[in-house]
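Customer escalation, tier 2.

The customer says the design service returned an amino acid string that "doesn't look like it belongs to this structure." They asked us to rerun it and document both sides in this ticket. The original structure tokens are below, unchanged.
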């Protein structure tokens, strides 16, 4: 069996509500899908050492990350009965309240999408070489722990 095409995961800046809505709308034509699960990772305005996070600047070892995203994707298709899957992650500055990770999983049945989406998100957090620099209101920064 031929290897599936590798999809580009990274988006410059935040993942916009219009982009998310458009992705969902495109799936209304796919009548073999009975369930979707969506995970949206959003930048929080945490308070760390009495300073408010106003944004996160994301960087990645892109070539390695793209390969790992592909492996995560293929493993999920092999394990779960999925019809469709999309993964997007931001690079660059994403302000508090904006979306930085969009995972969209589709299947014929809900149990498959719930289980697959959760596993995919956990693997992304654990495996991919993506780093976030939390930017504070005073323009200082700290490297984010990936929890």
């Amino acid at each position: 069996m031929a290897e599936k095409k590798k999809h580009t995961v990274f988006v410059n800046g935040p993942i916009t509500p219009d982009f998310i809505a458009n992705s969902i709308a495109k799936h209304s034509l796919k009548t073999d899908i009975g369930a979707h699960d969506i995970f949206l990772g959003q930048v929080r305005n945490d308070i760390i050492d009495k300073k408010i996070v106003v944004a996160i600047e994301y960087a990645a070892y892109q070539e390695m990350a793209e390969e790992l995203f592909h492996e995560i994707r293929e493993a999920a298709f092999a394990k779960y009965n999925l019809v469709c899957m999309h993964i997007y992650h931001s690079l660059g500055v994403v302000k508090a309240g904006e979306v930085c990770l969009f995972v969209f999983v589709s299947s014929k049945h809900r149990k498959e999408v719930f289980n697959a989406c959760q596993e995919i998100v956990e693997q992304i957090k654990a495996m991919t070489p993506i780093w976030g620099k939390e930017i504070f209101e005073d323009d200082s920064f700290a490297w984010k722990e990936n929890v």
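Tier 2 assessment: The sequence is consistent with the input. The beta strands are 10-12, 35-42, 47-48, 51-60, 82-95, 99-107, 130-136, 141-143. The helical segments are 17-26, 62-79, 110-127. Sent an explanation to the customer and offered a walkthrough call.
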